[in-house]
Design goal:
The complex is a heterodimer of chains A (481) and B (509). With 481 residues, chain A is mainly α. Chain A has one domain (10-479). Chain A has 19 helices and two strands. Chain A has helices at 10-29, 33-53, 71-96, 102-120, 124-142, 149-180, 185-194, 200-218, 226-233, 236-261, 274-297, 302-323, 326-353, 369-372, 374-388, 394-408, 412-438, 453-469, 472-479, and strands at residues 59-61, 66-68. Chain A has a two-stranded antiparallel sheet. The two termini of chain A are 17 Å apart. Chain B has a domain at 274-509. Chain B is 75% helix and 3% strand. In chain B, α17 runs parallel beside α20 (459-477). Chain B is globular and about 75 Å long. In chain B, 61% of the residues are buried. The mean pLDDT of chain B is 88. Classes of the chains: A mainly alpha (481), B mainly alpha (509).
Chain lengths: 481, 509
């Protein structure tokens, strides 16, 4: 526990220096998009590699402000991978729309740096800084097509509602501080589990407010209303990134907080409210899944459909929080990892099919894609089956782990709700496959050439299949923490 | 040798599927030949299971027990007993026939079609060989995707509706089964063996689960299997899927896919939850009997031949379920043999319907009449299939139905003659609807000019049917050849239920 652990903090330091010191300078003097793209892609690659290499080094740093190693580094790698995959797919996409500006990559890396901070955070203030850094980058990215009304509208909506949610988050943090006298997760956890609380009610209220704030970030019911509009209006490449890495980041912050404030099994005075908090999370999870999936059925726009489905996936993920156990956390980690790959994959294909003016994103536009573009349609089908949770794809195993953790915690009813909503979700995922394979096209429009997005798709597909068949690859990593 | 033969039987189709995907799309002939050769080799390899199979043992044989996901104690555990051996052989036997049946009738997207067919075989064999609940579930679901595409792309007019309905129905059932599988695994922790998906371990500990919980677990498994069988009232997806699927799809669906449900009832419900099985034998048998009669009555009024055969499946599989839940050695043996029978005879009926459909592009009974005169060779084959399905003594159907009825008659669990007596009338109904259909299609006067010049069976069609006839007669005359294989495993399963029901003091409060 050195005050400044340079080895452990290396990923953070690298991305900050690259972004804040060098990146700004490059962009101030050089107007070369290719260079900027390469520079930031390299930054993410180096950061991810460093995070992977230093993950063995588990400790806390900067006066316990951040944790390093293990869990946090796992998320670092995931965020960098998601960022790289998005960058590769975004470049041809933005070029087609003639709105490729260097700032896009800056913002993306800045969002990644915020996410990394969230994952490393061991302190409420650090978490808040991370959340805001990520969110503000997202607000700007959502409005990146600044000449398109719906893109600007998405940005504004996202900003207004997001700012509101941040208020809840901060208020919750303040109450937690009031209840425990500390901003440090470990101290909060000790207070909650050890029963040295002076105001248990304050802790409960703080936990609930923070849950509300983070529920907004993961788009869980009843704070999900922004998601469809924002996901639909934003440029597809941005949606791909926001709906995956953004959600993963929110959960990376959610898990430690819940673990700290939910004293499951502890015989503490504060344990009295634990079942209620568990129940609140379970109910949010259940309604989120149902609302997301049922609303998705009625959609005709693919981006909106995927937006609602991403709400439902937030519901599944929350099942892991309900148990508050290590199994639940492992379930969330696995599911969110597979989710990042399958959802980015799906959105990249949506981006390829989409025309430069933002049309051609209706479900009906996918008719006959199986004949016109067998490869693209085949990959889309793989992602759809994986999102629907059909083995042998990664999505299935993630669901299996989440179901397992919920049943283990005694929430069999929640699992049954999840099962029912999974069946509902299969209907619209299959609907996509039906359009692509079983129906003929009325008017054929050729998708854009794949370009670098092909790399993203290849990585996503391999990940979805390999993680589905050999889940132990990741499970073994979780066991080392 | 047996172990490697079993491994090869499971994985050869997968290898074949990947091989087909690598062949150039335009090389249609090469694709077909590769698929056929692969399925024939798989069948030959699966025959190698027979010499090493010890039919005097109740244990699982040719077992492999290797780790897959250590954290969840889910392993690649496979092995077969007599029941699964028969069904594995049925699968490998029907596949080449189904491929031949697709030879000329599948003209679009042939590459995808044959790759999916092989993928389907991989999943089906896996289901029958899996000795691990997790692995079983994965195989069970893997089947959905190829079958969904086979119905949806190469099916008839309402194929989309049928494909989606098939998928959703099956998935709804099987996801609840997944919940039960997880619950069982967690029960392993309580029972002291740790979280597990190992079926052999679960068989030891599952009977100790409290009765009220056991009831729900039983129901979760049973629902998945009832939908697949399909047992009345969960059968509504079947006529749609059968009618819309291409001929080979219907053949595989009827011959093998439905057997996954009845197999699951024996392997999981009977063997894992003996007490609940004994408890619920009555109500489930009532559903089976209703299915027998209902399926037969609905079949009687169909005007579409394929739909008629589909409803006859509902009726025939009612016998299988009745046999299983009579929980007597005769009954379950009859059920196992009836599974094979139904695969052969209904598979053959679907092939015959396919032959007619290919010539006339209609399945309406009213469009036919007097076909015997123009297609004499076909008439013989169709008649054999029809009589086998009716249950004529000397052919296979009789053996299975006879044994299930004896089982139901004698069963100490049902303890009521009514089951057997009412079901027996189902046999008579079968004769009514099948003979009547045959009469209207094949006999009478050939009035419709379009039916005047139909081509008799071509060689390729002829040779699809001949192997089936051989086994239909063989099973009818010498059923012992086949029943010996499964006898010990069935005795063990039934013995376990009887033990919990009669020899041990009941655990109920």
């Amino acid at each position: 526990m050195q005050p400044f652990d340079l080895v452990g903090s290396l990923p953070l330091i690298v991305i900050w220096l690259a972004l804040g010191a060098v990146g700004i300078v490059i962009q101030a003097f050089v107007r070369n998009t290719k260079l900027v793209f390469g520079y930031y892609a390299g930054t993410l690659a180096v950061t991810g590699t460093l995070a992977a290499l230093t993950s063995y080094h588990k400790t806390t740093a900067f006066q316990h402000m951040i944790t390093v190693g293990g869990y946090a580094n796992y998320f670092d790698v995931l965020f960098c991978a998601a960022g790289l995959m998005t960058m590769l797919a975004a470049r041809p996409y933005l070029q087609r729309s003639e709105s490729e500006y260097d700032e896009f990559y800056t913002l993306l890396v800045s969002a990644v740096s915020g996410m990394i901070l969230m994952a490393h955070s061991n302190n409420l203030v650090v978490t808040f800084v991370g959340v805001e850094l990520m969110s503000i980058s997202f607000y700007v990215m959502a409005g990146f097509f600044k000449m398109q009304e719906r893109s600007v509208e998405a940005a504004l909506k996202y900003f207004l509602l997001g700012a509101f949610a941040s208020g809840f988050l901060v208020y919750g943090m303040a109450l937690l501080y009031g209840a425990t006298g500390s901003l440090d997760y470990v101290d909060i956890g000790l207070a909650a589990h050890g029963g040295t609380l002076r105001f248990p009610l304050l802790l409960a209220a703080g936990a609930v407010l923070m849950t509300i704030g983070l529920s907004f970030k993961v788009a869980a019911f009843p704070f999900h209303q922004w998601a469809p509009d924002v996901y639909e209006g934003s440029p597809t490449a941005v949606t791909a990134f926001m709906s995956t890495a953004g959600k993963a980041a929110a959960f990376s912050a959610f898990i430690p907080i819940i673990m700290a404030v939910m004293p499951v099994g502890a015989g503490a005075a504060a344990a009295a409210y634990a079942p209620q908090l568990q129940m609140v999370l379970a109910i949010i999870a259940a309604i989120t899944m149902l609302v997301g999936n049922i609303s998705a059925i009625a959609q005709t726009n693919v981006k909106r459909m995927l937006a609602y489905s991403s709400i439902a996936h937030a519901g599944y993920l929350m099942m892991g929080l309900v148990s508050g156990s290590a199994d639940g956390a492992a379930g969330i980690l696995f599911y969110v990892t597979s989710y990042v790959f399958m959802q980015i994959g799906a959105f990249v294909i949506v981006g390829l099919v989409e025309k430069a003016d933002g049309t051609n994103v209706m479900l009906d536009d996918y008719r006959g894609l199986g004949k016109r573009q067998p490869l693209l349609a085949g990959l889309m089908a793989v992602f759809m089956f994986s999102l629907a949770g059909i083995p042998p794809f990664a999505g299935f195993f993630g669901k299996y782990l989440l179901f397992l953790s919920a049943i283990e915690a005694g929430f069999t009813w929640l699992t049954i709700v999840a099962v029912v909503s999974s069946v509902i979700s299969v209907y619209f995922y299959l609907g996509m496959v039906v359009k692509m394979y079983f129906q003929e096209a009325e008017h054929a429009t050729e998708p854009a050439p794949t370009g670098m997005a092909g790399i993203t798709l290849a990585v996503a597909t391999i990940a979805v299949v390999v993680l589905g068949v050999l889940p132990s690859l990741l499970l073994n990593i979780y066991r080392t923490w | 040798m047996g172990v490697s033969a079993l491994l090869a039987t499971i994985f050869l189709p997968l290898a074949g599927s990947l091989a087909v995907m690598l062949i150039e799309r335009s090389q249609v002939k090469a694709i077909k030949v590769t698929t056929l050769v692969m399925t024939v080799i798989t069948f030959l390899v699966s025959l190698l299971l027979l010499p090493g199979f010890d039919r005097t043992s109740t244990a699982m044989q040719f077992t492999i027990n290797s780790q897959w996901i250590p954290a969840l104690d889910a392993g690649f555990r496979i092995g077969i007993d007599g029941t699964s051996l028969l069904l594995v052989l049925l699968t490998t036997f029907m596949m080449p026939i189904a491929i031949l049946a697709s030879w000329d009738s599948i003209t679009k997207q042939t590459k995808e079609y044959y790759a999916l067919m092989l993928m389907l075989q991989f999943g089906m064999t896996g289901v029958f060989a899996a000795l691990d609940t997790f692995l079983f579930y994965v195989f069970w679901e893997v089947i959905l995707i190829p079958m969904y595409f086979i119905i949806g792309i190469w099916g008839g007019k309402d194929r989309i509706y049928a494909a989606v309905k098939f998928f959703l129905y099956t998935l709804a059932g099987s996801l609840l089964m997944l919940v039960a599988i997880i619950w069982l695994g967690l029960y392993g922790v309580e029972a002291g063996v740790g979280f597990t998906a190992d079926l052999m371990k679960l068989r030891m500990i599952a009977p100790a689960i409290p009765m009220d919980v056991q009831f729900w677990l039983f129901m979760a498994f049973a629902l998945a299997f009832f939908i697949k069988v399909p047992l009345f009232p969960f059968h509504t997806w079947l006529p749609d899927a059968h009618v819309q699927a291409p001929t080979a799809g219907s053949v595989i669906l009827a011959a093998v896919l439905l057997k996954m449900g009845t197999y699951g009832l024996i392997r999981f419900n009977l063997e894992l939850f003996p007490q609940t099985s004994a408890e619920l034998a009555g109500p489930i048998s009532v559903l089976a009997v209703i299915g027998i009669i209902y399926g037969a009555l609905v079949a009687m009024v169909q005007t579409d031949i394929k739909k008629l055969v589909a409803y006859s499946s509902v009726s025939h599989l009612g016998f299988v379920v009745l046999g299983i839940f009579s929980i007597t050695v005769e009954g379950v043996q009859g059920a196992v043999i009836q599974m094979v029978n139904h695969g052969l005879s209904t598979g053959m009926l679907f092939l015959c319907v396919g032959v007619l459909y290919e010539r006339r592009h209609t399945r309406e009974i009213g469009d036919y009449g007097g076909i015997t005169n123009v297609m004499p060779r076909f008439a013989v084959m169709f008649a054999i299939a029809m009589f086998a399905s009716v249950g004529l003594p000397g052919l296979n159907g009789f053996v299975g139905e006879f044994f299930t009825l004896i089982g139901a008659f004698r069963s100490p669990f049902l303890n009521n003659w009514a089951y057997a007596i009412i079901s027996a009338s189902g046999v008579i109904f079968a004769a009514v609807y099948l003979l009547w259909m045959f009469q209207r299609v094949m006999f009478g006067t050939n009035n419709n000019p379009e039916n005047h010049h139909l081509r008799d069976l071509r060689t390729i069609e002829y040779w699809q049917l001949v192997p089936l006839v051989i086994f239909i007669v063989w099973l009818g005359i010498a059923p012992r050849t086949f029943m010996d294989l499964s006898e010990k495993s069935v005795q063990a399963a039934v013995g376990k239920v009887e033990f919990y029901k009669f020899s041990r003091p009941s655990q109920q409060p």
